[in-house]
Amino acid sequence: MGYDAVHFTPLQKLGSSRSPYSIADQLELEPSFQVEQNELEGFLKSSHLKFVHDAVWNHTATNSEWVKNNPEIGYNLINSPHLVPAYFIDHELRAISNELSSENSDLHHISSENDVNRLGSLILDRLKALSLDVFYQCDVESELARFKKSIACFLESPAPAPQKPKSLVLESNWPRGEKLSRRVNFSDEVLRVGNLVKDGELQQNEAFSNFEKTISWLNEIESDKMLEHLQSAVNGTLGTLRYERLDQNGPKKGPITAEHPICPRYFYCIEADCSPEQVLANSVKKKYVLAHNGWVMNWNPLKNFAGSDCEVYLRRELCAWDDSIKLNYGEGPDHCPVLWERMEEYTRWLARHGAAIRIDNCHSTPLHVAEYFLHCARDENKDVVVIAELFTASKEQDDEFVSRLGLDYLIREALQAHNNGDFCQTIRAFCGTPIGALESTREISKLAPGLLMDASHDNPSLYESRPIESFLTTAAIASFSSSPVGSNYFYDQLVPKHVNIVNEKRRYSRKSSTNFPRKILNDIRKEMKSAGVDLINVESKENTCVITRRNEENSREYILISGNIYDKHSPVSSQTVTLNTTLENIKVRLHSRIKSKDEDFVEDSEEINGLSADYFVEENVDLEAF
Question: Quick one: 333 exposed, middle or buried, by C-beta within 10 A (0-12, 13-18, 19+)?
Fold first, then answer.
C-alpha cells in the first residue's frame, strides 16, 4: 500500500466497554493480543515501519483496578464537593429511567414529541422536589445569630464605618457539598449598621430584621438560579432523548430499558450504588463516587469543565462517556503523586517504543498536564513527533496549544469539508507552504501543519454521504498535499458503513473486492518528496481541484487535476480546465468503474467487507492522445 507508518489505537489493557480509548491499565498490554510485552517491544524496535501511539491522559476506564485503591485520582465528592448537587440529579434521573423501563409505564416507548414534553414535565417536577437550592443558600437563623454577635462585639469596640461599604452578598467560594453551608460576607455591614445603632439612628431590632430580610432575599435569588439550572438539565436530557429515539440520523434505541436509559450517567459508584442522602452522611462513600469524562459543545478548552467554578455537570451540558472516569491532576504532581507517576511511566513507554505520539482529546487535556508529560516523552525520545487531535473555537487557542506544547502536526480531516472550496482551503491553510510565500511569512505562523486524514477512525464511511467515485478523488487530492497524510483500512476497502472501533468484532476480509490504487498515490508522494517540490498552490473550480507542487530552486512542477463530488445525489459532470504551463508528460491517469450499487451490497456477518469497484490506471499517457 506504500504506507511508511502505522497508527495504533491504544495497545494497553482495555476497560469493560472494550473501547480502545477507555484504558483499564496503562501499564499492561491488552491480553486479547496474545503477545508478550517483550515480543511486542522487539517488533516495534526492529520493524522498518514507524509507529504512532495514542496518549490517553484525560481519563481511565471505570473498571480500572488501580482506581478502586486510589479514588482520589478522579473528581470525587470529597475532593470536588461542588459536584454533590449534580450527583443528586444524576441519581434521580437514573431512578426515573428505572421506573420507565417497566413495560407498564406509559412512557416506556418514546415515540413522539408529545411523549418527550410529557417526560420533560415529569423530570422537572422530580428535580424541583430535590430542593437543591439549599446547597447554594445560607442558614438564615445561623447567619442572623452570627450577625447579632458581631454587632455586640462592635458596640464594645466601635470602629469607623467604611466610606463605600460593600453590599451584603453570599460568599462566592464555599464547599457546596453540604446543605445551607454558605455564609454571608457582612464585615462592612457590621461597621455600617453598628455605627448607626451606636449613634441612635437605628434600633437593633430593626437592623436585625433588615438583615434577615436581605439574606432571605439572597436565598430566593439562589432558588431562581437553581430553577434555571434544572431547566437546563431537563433540556439537555431531552436533547439526548430526541436524538437517540426520534432523530432520523440517530441510533433509534427504542424503548427505555436498563441497557438503554433516558440518558448516560454522569457519575460512577465504585461501591454499591447508594442514595445521595446516604452518600452525604458517609465520607467513605463520598470518595467512591467519581465523575465521568466527556466533552462539552463549544467549550473553552483552556477551562476545566469539572472545576468548582463551572456548573457543567449540574446543568447536564456534558456529552458523557460513561465508560471512563475523568482524571483529576490538580495543579501539579504534588496534588496526586500516584496519578502523575503512573501516567508518566505510561507516557515514557509510548515514547520509547514509537516514533510519534498522538494526543487523544488534546483540547480537553489541561495544558500544564500535557506540558509535563511531553517533557517526559522528549526526555525518553528526543526525536519523538507529537501529533494532536485538537478542536478549539479559534486559531488563537490553537496557537496557544501549539506554541506551549511544541506540537508538530494537528489532525485535519478531509470529511469535514462540505464542498470543494472547503477542502481546497483546508489544504491551502494547513497542508503546505504556498508558492510565492515570503520566507518571513512562513516563519511567523505558530500554527502546526496538518496531518491530513482522508478518513480517521472517528469518521463515518465516506459512502454514507458521498458517491463511490469520491473514495478515489478525495484520497488523490489529500495525497497531493505537501503535509503528511493518512487513511484507514476501511477506506481503502470501500467499506460503505462506519466501522465502530468499540462494537465491531469482525476482522477485515482477506479477499478485497477492490484494487484501490493507494500504493500509486503514495509512490507519487515519495517521488515528489525526492524531487523537492515542497511548495503548493491549490485552486478550486466548482467540483474540480487543481493542485500544483513546485520546487522553488528549479521550478519543476507536479500538477494534479481531480474532480470531486460532495453530494451523493449530485450528477457526475466533467469540466474543462485550462493550465498556464507546458506539460512534459502525463504521469498517470486514474479513474474508477462502479461494480456494486446500494441494493447489491450484502454485508458479511463474519468479516468486514466492502463495495466492489474497479480502478483503472494509465501510466505515461500520450499527450496527443489525451
Answer: middle
Grid coordinates representing 355?
516514533
What pLDDT is recorded for position 418? 84
By the 8 A CB rule, do 15 and 61 touch? yes
| Percentage of residues in the chain having pLDDT higher than 90 | 56
Q: In the numeric block, which cell numbers belong to residue 293?
A: 469524562
Distance of CA 233 to the CA centre of its chain: 20
pLDDT one-digit tens code per residue, 421-441: 888 888 888 887 887 764 444
Please state, in angstroms and rounded to a whole number, the distance separating the CA atoms of residues 348 and 374.
Answer: 9
Q: How far apart are CA 220 and CA 205, in angstroms?
A: 23
CA distance 617 to 619: 6
614 DSSP 8-state letter = E
Cα(239)–Cα(261) distance, rounded to whole angstroms?
Answer: 14
DSSP letter at 333?
Answer: T
Residue among 277, 267, 360 at smallest CA distance from 318: 267
CB 266 within 8 A of CB 320: yes
From CA 280, how far away is CA 178, in angstroms rounded? Answer: 8
Q: Cell triple for residue 585?
A: 508528460
User: Tens digits of per-residue pLDDT, 75-126?
Assistant: 999 999 999 999 999 999 999 999 999 999 999 999 999 999 999 999 999 9
Question: Is 170 a residue whose pLDDT tops 90?
Answer: yes
**Burial profile 584-606: b = 16 or more Cβ within 10 angstroms, e = fewer:** eebebebebeeebeeeebeeeee
The answer to whether the Cα torsion of 39, 40, 43, 44 is positive or negative is: negative
Is the separation of the CB atoms in 525 and 475 below 8 Å? no
pTM for the full predicted model:
0.89
Sheet holding 544-550, edge to edge: 433-434, 535-541, 544-550, 557-563
Contact partners, residue 266, CB within 8 Å, separation at least 6: 86, 87, 89, 90, 291, 292, 313, 316, 318, 320, 322
- CB distance 170 to 184 below 8 Å: yes
- Beta strands 507-508 and 535-541 are unpaired
Identity of residue 15 = G
Radius of gyration in angstroms for the set of CA atoms belonging to the chain, rounded to a whole number: 30
C-alpha grid cell, residue 413: 480531516
Alpha helices (H) in 139-186, listed in sequence order: 140-156
DSSP 25-51: EEEEE-GGG---HHHHHHHHHH-SSEE
